[in-house]
């Protein structure tokens, strides 16, 4: 669920002139060989994807900045669930997706032919998932959550993993942890559900977190940042066959996303916000942009979206204890930095 947003002064996107782009496409087509390493013809450059309501994802920012080169994006709808997004990638309904790294581990371990290629969201001092209760609530410690409902966007992903870690560190046994009730609530309704006492704790992040805090009456119980410090929590995945057939497109995709991540980090926040508003206005999806002012960053720890072993291995024990991981999966099976120009020595 964890995703962030960025914006900046409007610039002309850097795109190849039509004639140059056409020549590049023709050269790719002429050089393509049906040898399994590339398609028999030009590589795929139109990528289908799902967006996030009211947010600008790193890849959408990359496209607007002109960092994706000949790649164009085709939006087919929105998703509020990372697991659903990467499942759609695995089945070929979209060409790339983003999810919590623990959810990616589960899908790959189950045999899905996907691989993480670049970070997509994370947690840092400014961008984190907080678990909030109403002021005056009797809930003050992990044990107080037994029998209580904790609202989150989806089960089996980032928020449930963080909740379980909080309970485990609080001394609860596995049987006691099972008595805490993770409850699925659409992100846009989570704050309201807490205030109406339909849930006892609300997991909030990004813009929804900031808007809730400005209204007051709630306070932080714990956060993923407090438990783990800064870390990349989720990443973009591509199918193995896509990577094999489209190595140049894959490299351009990863490089573009990485450059967009760094642009959002180094550009003054007011310029990032302005750019985001412009992107949302141009795509005309009838979205509300009033909350964009709260954007603080994507929270991705690795430079240019680089992925570390720990971004995945920190979740394997949780998955095993919960019976969601039946076999060990090596980091090399889960992700690659091979296409990222920000890796050491590049």
Secondary structure elements and pairings:
Blueprint: H1 18-31, E1 46-51, H2 58-65, E2 72-78, H3 82-90, E3 97-100, H4 101-109, E4 114-123, E5 129-134, E6 149-152, H5 158-169, H6 174-177, E7 181-184, H7 187-195, E8 201-205, H8 206-215, E9 218-223, H9 224-228, E10 231-239, H10 240-245, H11 247-266, H12 269-283, H13 310-313, H14 316-321, H15 331-334
Parallel strand pairs: 1-2, 6-7, 6-8
Antiparallel strand pairs: 3-10, 4-10, 5-8, 5-9
Helix pairs in contact: 2-11
Describe this entry's structure for a reader.
It contains 15 helices and ten strands. It has 346 residues and is of the alpha/beta class. Strands 7-6-8-5-9 form a five-stranded mixed sheet, with helices on both faces. Strands 3-10-4 form a three-stranded antiparallel sheet. Helix 2 (58-65) links the parallel strand 1 and strand 2. Helix 2 packs across helix 11 (247-266). The chain is globular. 47% of the residues are buried.
Strand content: 15-25%
Mean pLDDT: 86
Number of strands: 10
List the helices and strands in order: HEHEHEHEEEHHEHEHEHEHHHHHH
* Strands ordered across the widest β-sheet: 7-6-8-5-9
Q: Helical proportion?
A: 25-40%
Tell me the overall shape.
globular
The gist of it:
The protein has 346 residues and is an alpha/beta fold.
Q: What are the defining features of this structure?
A:
alpha/beta, five-stranded mixed sheet, 346 residues, three-stranded antiparallel sheet, disordered N terminus, 15 helices
């Amino acid at each position: 669920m964890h995703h962030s947003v960025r914006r900046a002064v409007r610039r002309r996107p850097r795109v190849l002139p039509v004639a140059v782009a056409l020549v590049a496409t023709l050269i790719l087509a002429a050089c393509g060989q049906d040898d399994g390493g590339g398609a028999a013809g030009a590589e795929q450059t139109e990528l289908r994807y799902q967006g996030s309501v009211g947010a600008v994802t790193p890849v959408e920012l990359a496209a607007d900045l002109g960092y994706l080169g000949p790649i164009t994006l085709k939006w087919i709808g929105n998703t509020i669930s990372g697991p659903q997004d990467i499942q759609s990638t695995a089945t070929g309904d979209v060409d790339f997706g983003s999810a919590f790294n623990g959810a990616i581990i589960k899908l790959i371990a189950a045999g899905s032919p996907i691989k993480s290629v670049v970070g997509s969201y994370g947690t840092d001092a400014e961008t984190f998932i907080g678990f909030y209760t109403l002021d005056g609530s009797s809930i003050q410690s992990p044990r107080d959550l037994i029998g209580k409902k904790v609202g989150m966007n989806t089960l089996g992903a980032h928020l449930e993993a963080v909740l379980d870690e909080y309970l485990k560190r609080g001394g609860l046994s596995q049987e006691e942890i099972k008595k805490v009730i993770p409850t699925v609530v659409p992100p846009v309704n989570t704050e309201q559900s807490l205030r109406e006492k339909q849930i006892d704790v609300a997991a909030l992040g990004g813009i929804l977190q900031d808007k809730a805090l400005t209204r007051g009456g709630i306070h932080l119980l714990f956060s993923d940042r407090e438990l783990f410090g800064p870390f990349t929590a989720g990443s973009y995945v591509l199918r193995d066959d896509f990577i094999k057939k489209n190595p140049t497109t894959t490299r351009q995709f990863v490089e573009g996303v990485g450059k967009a991540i760094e642009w959002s980090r180094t550009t003054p926040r007011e310029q990032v916000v302005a750019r985001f508003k412009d992107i949302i206005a141009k795509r005309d999806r009838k979205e509300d942009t009033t909350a964009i002012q709260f954007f603080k960053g994507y929270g991705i720890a690795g430079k240019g979206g680089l992925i570390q072993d720990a971004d995945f291995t920190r979740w394997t024990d949780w998955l095993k204890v919960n019976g969601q991981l039946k076999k060990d999966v090596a980091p090399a099976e889960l992700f690659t930095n091979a296409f990222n120009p920000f890796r050491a020595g590049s």
